[in-house]
């Protein structure tokens, strides 16, 4: 049973386009994290959202935590080739245990 | 300096062999993890140690045995390797295993069983 459904799983867009990645669950998490993983490397934390309804911005990336703390979204504005990579959402339990989504592979073509 | 380092990065071995992957963190963290990432990029926790003590042990075959000689090291030993063990294994660490703490991942160890 996949606790965190991430969509889409694959996304190929042109440079300059906008995109949104979704992360949905029927479970409540104490917080939710977004990671980016490049080929040959481990995931790197982008952001942690803690409060229901919270919105955080990281340059062209906007992260939102759902009001009920069950879902989240990542929106990228004017995507660039350097944004290419695997994006992973992870729900965080009170114990600190991470439950990962399946990941979204993003390709931004120049 | 690499915060979380694991060796080897690549490992190709035959079925039935026993192999180990080593991990070290120089961040002074109390908690370390082993994660497995399959061919579909799905990342799943295997084990978690806090100050050398096992705190999370997911449904992992007994052939996998973690060992933590001190809180800066968490090694993974795998007995009788099977084809299905082929994956990328990530070591990770965090200050304390509480919600919201940043988890730092190593670069991964690519295990291929032939």
Please provide a brief summary of the model.
The complex is a heterodimer of chains A (110) and B (114). Chain A has 110 residues and is mainly β. In chain A, 0% of the residues lie in helices and 55% in strands.
Describe this protein's structure.
The complex is a heterodimer of chains A (110) and B (114). With 110 residues, chain A is mostly beta strands. Chain A is built from no helices and eleven strands. In chain A, the strands form two sheets. In chain A, strands 2, 4, 5, 9, 10 and 11 form a six-stranded mixed beta sheet that branches. Chain A has a five-stranded antiparallel beta sheet with strand order 1-3-8-7-6, with no helix packed on it. In chain A, strand 6 (55-58) and strand 7 form a beta hairpin. Chain A is globular and about 40 Å long. Chain A starts with a strand and ends with a strand. The mean pLDDT of chain A is 93. Chain B has 114 residues and is mainly β. In chain B, 0% of the residues lie in helices and 55% in strands. Chain B contains no helices and eleven strands. In chain B, the strands form two sheets. In chain B, strands 2, 4, 5, 6, 9, 10 and 11 form a seven-stranded mixed beta sheet that branches. In chain B, strands 1-3-8-7 form a four-stranded antiparallel beta sheet, with no helix packed on it. In chain B, strand 5 (43-50) and strand 6 form a beta hairpin. Chain B is globular, with a radius of gyration of 13 Å. The relative contact order of chain B is 0.33. The model of chain B has no long low-confidence stretch (mean pLDDT 91). The chains are: A mainly beta (110), B mainly beta (114). Chains A and B meet through strand 4, strand 5 and strand 9 of A and strand 5, strand 9 and strand 10 of B.
Throw out a few tags for this protein:
heterodimer; A: 110 residues; mainly beta; five-stranded antiparallel β-sheet; 0% helix; globular; B: 114 residues; seven-stranded mixed β-sheet; four-stranded antiparallel β-sheet; 11 strands
